[in-house]
Amino acid sequence: MEVNRDEAERCIDIATAALTNNQAEKAVRFLEKAQKLFPTDKARALLDLIAKNGFTPGHDNQSTSDGTGPRQRRPGEEDQGEKASQTAKSYTSDQLDAVKKFFTQRSYPLGYLPPQRSYPLGYLPPIRSYP
Prior knowledge:
- The chain is mainly alpha-helical.
- It is built from five helices and no strands.
- It has helices at residues 5-20, 24-37, 41-52, 80-87, 93-104.
- The longest helix has 16 residues, at 5-20.
- InterPro entries: DnaJ_subfamily_B/C (IPR051100).
- One of its GO terms (cellular component) is endoplasmic reticulum membrane.
- GO terms for molecular function: Hsp70 protein binding.
- One of its GO terms (biological process) is cellular response to misfolded protein.
């Protein structure tokens, strides 16, 4: 279809950029998509070139073991933000005690509703006055 020609060319551009970054699996994926959208000689030639150079799925940084399923996180690849939040507490024990005390009290300041209570849509409970 002539309508998909621009998208196929865009996929080819993405694939050539992936090839320059040594991401052959990504390039193959986009070249195959380009061929499905609008078959071109350029996409076919690039696919043949990749196949001729002996590319097999699994030699890439972002590949899976069989090349068909979702990517899996490797054992040493934890997110640094998660790791930092797990190792260092950002609160003190006094602050933790204050929060526990706050949620165990029967009355909450300034009309705060505890998360476990649910009220019907549109209902606002009366605000209590505190001494």
